[in-house]
Amino acid sequence: MEIQLPRGTRDILPNEIETWHFLENKFRSICETYRYSEIRTPIFEHTELFERGVGDSTDIVTKEMYTFQDKKGRSLTLRPEGTAPVVRSFVEHKMFGDVKQPVKLYYNGPMFRYERPQGGRQRQFTQMGIEAIGSDDPSIDAEVISLAMNFFRSIGLENISLIINSLGDKESRLKHREALIAHFEPQIDEFCSDCQARLYKNPLRILDCKTDHEHPLVKSAPSILDFLNEESKEYFAKVKGFLDVIGISYTVDPTLVRGLDYYNHTTFEIMSDEEGFGAKTTLCGGGRYHGLVQEFDGPDTPGIGFGMGVERVLLALEKAQVKIPAAKGLSCYVISAQEEADEKVVQLVNMLRDHGISAEKDYQKRKLKAQLKDADRKQAKYTVIIGEDEIRTGEYSLKNMATGEQFLVTETELITTLEEQAEGDE
Ligand code: HAM
């Protein structure tokens, strides 16, 4: 049987990679502007990291992890998200001792969740994300959100909306938890077995259950915003104030609880409003996580960040029909008019590449006409034909493929012309 891709994964083919590079470069450049540095953590981690970090009553941990035992019987898991690994690394490398606080990090890489694949939902997907660890200043919340919004604007995605909420501090969450238990307890037998198990363990998770999200009790559940204590209310007001100051509009949605356990205070999601995008529209989700550093045995340190699904961003770009600027094309195709010119062609192509000029030649023993056709197919901006005469005189005929113009150039002139043309393209 023909071996095919595992379900929920995909190849990124050469004709798509330009868009990926475009997104990656934009993200890197914006992160640098906001002074975030890149961090790369392993693809797999000890399973316990996610059980303790993401939470053992979340869907991710109970149903979606790719967990395996290595040859020594250790339980390892392909990372389902980036925050727990980054915080682990922050603690392991004692970044809390760094004089430069907060520590601002970004990442870009594959994540793995055993979910039912559909448009915008895969088993291996890519997240670009950031984490700012070491400050509880509400202006960082606005900064993190603004970085994501600026990224979307810079790639030409206009039709998006920001939803924010606050889950409050520990005290507020405890009060809300009690209210949720009292709310669901009398009718909990109408809920799925997962929700029944969550009732006393983590009732907040009932609110984002994929099975019971339409149940009237979910819709009428007590809102966290009614349980925020003064401090949490004030914190949330400041975050909103900073967003207002930098001109970012938002909607407050008290049902936004997020699917991971580590959140408190600010949570947010950025949705694509493109029509026909399908059920899953969240491009980016994040929030604050005070307590996660401590959970991994580091000092009490606040953090905030987001993760963005690159495949979903690509779908949104497609729906919005955003044109990605084309990468630099092929500058020059060097054509061999006869066998005797082959060595000169190899030498010339090599020389152009040494000068950083993209150059191509024929490798299929094509006749002159077929080489011209190949140059056309590869969208070469210029062609040069090398035959015995050219080798003898040291002058080559350079053809601008767009205008059809042709002129004689020496080797040195060939390089300067192509270099100038490349600079003009930048
Ligand atoms: P999350 O909401 O689980 O948060 O994922 C963030 C984003 O990853 C989602 O909004 C979505 O775009 C993308 N995503 C998630 N699952 C899939 C999937 N199966 N297929 C395609 N895309 C997917 C987190 O992962 C947190 N670590 C975010 C964060 C960072 N919070 C604080 N810092």
Automatic annotation (TrEMBL):
Reactions catalysed, as given in the entry: tRNA(His) + L-histidine + ATP = L-histidyl-tRNA(His) + AMP + diphosphate + H(+)
Stretches assigned to the Aminoacyl-transfer RNA synthetases class-II family profile domain: 1-325
Xref: Pfam families: HGTP_anticodon (PF03129), tRNA-synt_His (PF13393)
EC code: 6.1.1.21
Subcellular location field: Cytoplasm
Keyword annotations: Aminoacyl-tRNA synthetase, ATP-binding, Cytoplasm, Ligase, Nucleotide-binding, Protein biosynthesis
SUPFAM superfamilies on file: Class II aaRS ABD-related, Class II aaRS and biotin synthetases
Self-association state and partner proteins as the record states: Homodimer.
GO biological process, one term: histidyl-tRNA aminoacylation
Superkingdom assignment: Bacteria
Family stated for the protein in its record: Belongs to the class-II aminoacyl-tRNA synthetase family.
Top EC class for this record: ligase
GO MF assignments: ATP binding; catalytic activity, acting on a protein; histidine-tRNA ligase activity; transferase activity
Binding site for L-histidine: E81, G82, T83, R113, Q127, E131, R258, Y262, Y263
Gene Ontology annotations for the cellular component aspect, listed alphabetically: cytoplasm
Protein name: Histidine--tRNA ligase
